[in-house]
Amino acid sequence: MDIRNGLVEAIGNTPLIKLQRASQATGCTILGKAEFLNPGQSVKDRAALFIIQDAVARGALRPGGVIVEGTAGNTGIGLALVGNALGFRSVIVIPETQSQEKKDMLRLAGATLVEVPAVAYANPNNYVKVSGRLAEALAETEPNGAVWANQFDNVANRLAHIETTGPEIWAQTNGKVDGFVCAVGTGGTLAGTGIALKARNPAIRIGLADPMGAALYSYYTTGELKSEGSSITEGIGQGRITANLEGAPIDCAYQIGDAEAVEIVFDLLEHEGLCLGGSSGINVAGAIRLAKELGPGHTIVTILCDFGTRYQSKLFNPVFLREKGLPVPGWLERSVDAPN
Ligand code: PMP
Prior knowledge:
Elements: E1 16-18, H1 20-26, E2 29-34, H2 44-57, E3 66-70, H3 74-86, E4 89-95, H4 100-108, E5 112-116, H5 127-141, E6 146-148, H6 156-172, E7 179-182, H7 188-200, E8 205-211, H8 216-222, E9 252-256, H9 258-272, H10 278-294, E10 299-304, H11 318-323, H12 330-337
């Protein structure tokens, strides 16, 4: 028998999918870890589970308690679903700029949603800071505890990837992996997977794929946190060194523009049937850059972070794309115009 005993056991152990066209173009084997196949359709289910388990182990969260978080959406979806499975309620603070599909999913999962204007981290009304204050206030009134998940600086997040994502990739490739590349939201995935892979073979190259508007490409190439431009991608793009990023073993960094990323996302859907969000495009672009640097014959792993339907109103919307000056593939134009 092969039975997962509930949602919690269905998180992780995702397949590694060989990306045919990226591999052909580089002469390397480029593998995508299919995190969109998690129950909440994103990589963040792993962090959500570890954060909740850590809060329970510390005694901060008791049955019926509340988990509070500021999130671009995916962590909130993971927390809400794991919360439902384990008997916790969720309160999610989200910047209003995030996709409608993610907000709808959060409400469907029973989360109490607090939408706030998208303002910089330095602003006291930033969604992360609002969620921290809300958790503090609820802790006073909730009899079973209220916990701030604090995904950016709670290292239970990267522990999920040290204990699951990294070891899975090592086992799935029989240790034949030369590089790992991904983008950073909290840094949990990159730092945690990087730490786990380096512990097994220090020669594995760990690369950051950074969208425009983030400050980490500049940090890891010049030592200075500086950003320029902006990106339509969601869930990634960091302006500071979070606790999860501290000491991350990062060897190289690539800055990826939206045009390059969305072209890859469209290509993967049209030719390989993989329906992914924008951050997966940034990741695959980064993996291709590292593959070109290392030369043919190497194996590079990256993360396919979440499922594309979460962005149908933006990334897969010709009107939105044109507004942003991004290319619209003919098939997408036709699929939107087609009568039902
Ligand atoms: N892609 C998407 C779509 C995400 O939601 C996130 C998490 N916010 C990431 C990538 C980045 O993951 P991490 O927080 O582990 O850096």
